[in-house]
């Protein structure tokens, strides 16, 4: 497709999603207040007042309407009508999770229900042929068979879904990280000539940006604030996971089996939420709790426990994600991927050790903010 047509399609896709979201969110807020559909504050949550949790209801319909219109125009002017199999299977998996998320937001669902559905949706994507078949030298491993690659890809997808879902604990954090991911992914897809996937990323930005404004700058008193809920976090987590796997499989014609630039690029975008969810799971297991047990051990709780405001914690975590991404893409050409990965984990561990040490000092002083963090 010509660049002129692409730069016409991308703004159109973005604009359609923005318009649909701006129209839909006020109506969803109105209905939520009429039906008393709120996210009830409890000891783990930092918000006060009545806030609807159905913002994510707008995500998938808006994206699908925009993407289908864009794909139709692309087919009419540039491409044949066929659509990649991974997009079709991915859309089916996203719809499955979207329906699950809406059910959870309305009546509540146990992780015993949601977790198997995440696994099934991940397998649906792998069934399209989109699965990681190369570790690119991680632990000395390169090409891998399907019997290893498919389960590994399922684990990666489920990890990313839960990373986005679990980090959605303060205003604008999950949506801010998703906005960052979609911007980075759209640039990568454009650079690689993957126009259809670029359209999907830009459409996702079209629903995320208006939602971010309502979520961060809206107020419960004026009935302008809304949360994305599981309908949004599960769907967006799945989309980001699928796009991550797609980018990770880009082949570099020059390097071939040498250093995997795009593999590093793809996973660096999600390093902070992914490492946080892994840390949480291990933390809960060590403390003899279920890995799915809700608590106040998230990275944003730690930052708030040392005295940061919600906005400061949000900006710090998004800034950390950007810093990891930029540093990794700058140095991945010069060091081995195993050293790079070990360095990321080491830096992440040091950050948490310093935060935990500071929290202990504040707790010893009976600082009010330190009670935010629960071991």
Can you walk through the features of this model?
There is one protein chain. This protein is an all-alpha fold and 375 residues long. It contains 13 helices and two strands, in the order ααααββααααααααα. It has a two-stranded antiparallel ribbon with strand order 1-2. The radius of gyration is 21 Å and the shape is globular. The termini are far apart.
User: Could you give the distance between the termini?
Assistant: 53 Å
Q: Give the low-pLDDT segments.
A: 252-257
Could you give the count of β-strands?
Answer: 2
Kindly estimate the percentage of residues that lie in beta strands according to DSSP: under 5%
Helix content range: 55-70%
């Amino acid at each position: 497709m010509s660049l002129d047509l692409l730069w016409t399609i991308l703004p159109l896709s973005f604009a359609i999603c923005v318009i649909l979201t701006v129209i839909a969110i006020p109506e969803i807020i109105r209905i939520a207040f009429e039906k008393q559909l709120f996210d009830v504050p409890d000891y783990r949550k930092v918000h006060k007042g009545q806030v609807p949790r159905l913002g994510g209801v707008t995500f998938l319909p808006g994206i699908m309407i925009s993407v289908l219109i864009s794909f139709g125009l692309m087919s009419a002017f540039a491409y044949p009508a066929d659509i990649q199999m991974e997009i079709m299977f991915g859309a089916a998996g996203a719809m499955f999770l979207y329906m699950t998320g809406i059910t959870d937001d309305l009546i509540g669902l146990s992780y015993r229900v949601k977790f198997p559905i995440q696994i099934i949706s991940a397998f649906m994507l792998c069934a399209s042929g989109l699965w990681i078949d190369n570790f690119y030298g991680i632990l000395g491993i390169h090409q891998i068979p399907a019997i290893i690659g498919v389960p590994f890809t399922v684990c990666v997808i489920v990890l990313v879904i839960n990373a986005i879902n679990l980090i959605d604990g303060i205003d604008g954090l999950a949506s801010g990280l998703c906005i960052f991911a979609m911007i980075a992914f759209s640039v990568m897809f454009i650079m690689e000539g993957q126009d259809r996937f670029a359209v999907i990323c830009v459409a996702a930005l079209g629903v995320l940006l208006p939602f971010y404004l309502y979520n961060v700058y809206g107020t419960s008193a004026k009935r302008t604030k809304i949360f994305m809920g599981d309908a949004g976090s599960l769907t967006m987590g799945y989309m980001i996971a699928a796009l991550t796997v797609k980018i990770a499989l880009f082949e570099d014609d020059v390097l071939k089996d040498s250093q995997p630039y795009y593999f590093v690029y793809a996973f660096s975008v999600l390093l902070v939420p992914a490492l946080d969810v892994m840390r949480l799971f291990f933390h809960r297991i060590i403390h003899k709790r279920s890995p799915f047990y809700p608590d106040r051990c998230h990275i944003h709780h730690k930052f708030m426990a040392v005295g940061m405001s919600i906005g400061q914690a949000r900006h710090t975590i998004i800034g950390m994600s950007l810093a990891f991404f930029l540093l990794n893409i700058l140095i991945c050409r010069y060091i081995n991927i195993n050293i790079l990965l070990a360095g990321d984990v080491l830096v992440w561990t040091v950050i948490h050790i310093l935060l935990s040490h500071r929290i202990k000092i504040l707790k010893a002083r009976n600082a009010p903010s330190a009670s935010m963090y629960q071991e």
